[in-house]
Structures are given as structure tokens and as C-alpha cells.
Design brief:
Strand content: 25-35%
Radius of gyration: 29 Å
Shape: elongated
Low-confidence stretches: 13-24, 201-220, 284-291
Order of helices and strands: HEEEEEEEEEEEHH
Number of strands: 11
Number of helices: 3
Structural class: alpha+beta
Length: about 290
């Protein structure tokens, strides 16, 4: 009975560890990890405002985006009517105001483009190349659901540039189909261990030679293959042990799936290695030889 309880605890722990690698409990701008490299976005932990104006005769339409990539926006004061405020827990807010000569401004639209619940956090995506820190990454977060059942969202492309300033504002690319696309080129988007020039795609006029390129590529492929192999083996082991425990009612070492094969595995490897060694060394026996 005690062995059965220990097995259940062990399996639960393994599954819990696997789940924890895919889910983030919080988002800390100061201690952000991307592809094994540390980043610090805390210099950007302020509310920034982007505004655009468009002629819509006989009026002018102004669109304002309030953004904080590190935390929900500061609630607006009570002097602002609740219906006109940015939604609570919004990290990015969009408001549209209509202006007409001789009349006061009229707020026509306000909504969250990122963040809806207190448990919402952004996701960070990046493409990696070997062990090099990503020079750019995407900050993505869903916002509030609209009347037409669509959901607004924000995609901020952070680009590493040590020649820029952290006070530089993000560039508004577009707001299309409910998706706000921004590009933010700042030093804070560079990894803390980045020793390169750090200007994203623009930074390197110098191209790596074939040796550097092959080393980085082979390292990345090898790491990916090893990760896949380990994940598949762990899945095989967990599922096999659970099946033999729950269905076959096996106990002890009999819980290991294909136990006979694993007992013989070291000898199989040894025989295979000896066969290769004899073949390469020219000491393979048998067959015919010239006399």
C-alpha cells in the first residue's frame, strides 16, 4: 500500500513539473526569461500614450492607445464617468473620441486591447538560433470581447537596439481586425548577457562565416532532437507505468514497461559496440579471406 501511494505521488510530481514548464503564474518585467536568457523590461514600466487623428468630415476622429507592457494600467480617477474609463485590468486601452467644430469632444468607443481579468498575463514568443539570445521577440495578450463576439488583442514586437533609448515610444503599425500591432525598439529588449552590437536585424553588416553558422545550426538541431527524445521517453515511461499499475496490477520492478528489453539493453549496446569496433578495426571473424 505504501509503495502504491509513493508511486502515485511520484507520477503526480512528474506531471506537475511538466505542466509548470508550460504555464507562467505571473509576469515579472525585471526577471523575464526568453530562450534561457535574462531580460529586464522594467525601464518600460510606465504608461505611454500614442495618439492618431483622422479627418472624418464633418468631424475629426482621434484614437488614443494607453500602454504599459509590465502591469495593468493605473485606474482613472473617479471624476471620469465609469462608462468612459478604460476597463479594469487592462494593460493596453483603446479610446476613440469624435471632435466637431463648435461642439465638445464626444467619446464614442473605449475598450481593452490587452488584459481583461486580474489573472491575465502576456505571453512572450521568440525565434531562437542556437544559443544566441533573441534580438527580437513578440509580447502578445488578448483583451476584451466585443459585441460581435470578436476579441481584441495586442502584439508588440520588441527589437533590441543599444543605440536607441528606453524613453523612445513604440511605433504604431496598425489596428486591423481587432489586433493592435506595435514595434518597440529599445535597449531593454536586449538580453542582459548580450555582448553584440544589439540592433536587431539591422545591427550586423558582418555575416558569420560558414563555421559559425554550422556550429549554431547543429547545436540548435541537436538540442531540439534531444528535447523531443526526452519528452517522448518520459511520456512512454509515465503512460507505461500507469497502465501496468492500473490495468495489469503489476507492482515493484514489474511496473517498468518492457522490463525484459531494458534488462537486456546494456548487453545489446555492448554487442553492437563490439561489432562496430571489430568491423572498423578489421578483426571481424568469419567469411572468406584471400590466401
Amino acid at each position: 500500500m505504501r509503495k502504491s501511494q509513493s508511486l502515485v505521488i511520484l507520477l503526480s510530481t512528474l506531471l506537475g513539473l511538466a505542466a509548470s514548464t508550460a504555464t507562467a503564474a505571473s509576469f515579472d518585467c525585471k526577471k523575464l526569461q526568453i530562450a534561457g536568457h535574462d531580460y529586464d523590461l522594467s525601464p518600460l514600466a510606465n504608461q505611454v500614450v500614442l495618439e492618431t487623428n483622422a479627418k472624418t468630415p464633418p468631424t475629426t476622429t482621434g484614437t488614443k492607445y494607453t500602454i504599459n507592457p509590465c502591469a495593468p494600467l493605473t485606474p482613472e480617477p473617479d471624476t471620469v464617468p465609469k462608462i468612459d474609463r478604460c476597463p479594469e485590468n487592462a494593460w493596453v486601452c483603446r479610446s476613440v473620441t469624435n471632435y466637431k467644430e463648435g461642439q465638445g469632444p464626444r467619446l464614442t468607443e473605449v475598450g481593452s486591447v490587452a488584459g481583461e481579468k486580474s489573472s491575465d498575463y502576456p505571453a512572450v514568443e521568440a525565434r531562437t538560433s542556437g544559443n544566441q539570445p533573441p534580438a527580437e521577440f513578440h509580447w502578445k495578450m488578448a483583451g476584451s470581447r466585443q459585441a460581435d463576439e470578436s476579441t481584441w488583442s495586442t502584439d508588440i514586437k520588441f527589437v533590441c537596439s543599444k543605440s536607441a533609448k528606453n524613453t523612445d515610444l513604440p511605433k504604431l503599425l496598425e489596428f486591423k481586425d481587432g489586433v493592435l500591432s506595435l514595434e518597440w525598439t529599445v535597449p531593454a529588449a536586449c538580453a542582459l548577457d548580450d555582448t553584440s552590437g544589439g540592433d536587431g536585424d539591422k545591427g550586423g553588416d558582418k555575416k558569420p562565416d560558414d563555421g559559425d553558422k554550422s556550429t549554431a545550426g547543429s547545436g540548435g538541431i541537436f538540442s531540439s532532437l534531444m528535447s523531443i527524445f526526452v519528452a517522448v521517453f518520459m511520456l512512454y515511461l509515465v503512460v507505461g507505468v500507469m497502465y501496468r499499475f492500473l490495468v495489469v496490477r503489476a507492482r515493484g520492478l514489474d511496473l517498468v514497461p518492457n522490463l525484459g528489453f531494458w534488462r537486456e539493453f546494456p548487453y545489446l549496446v555492448s554487442d553492437f559496440a563490439r561489432h562496430i569496433w571489430d568491423t572498423v578495426g578489421g578483426r571481424r571473424r568469419g567469411g572468406y579471406s584471400v590466401v
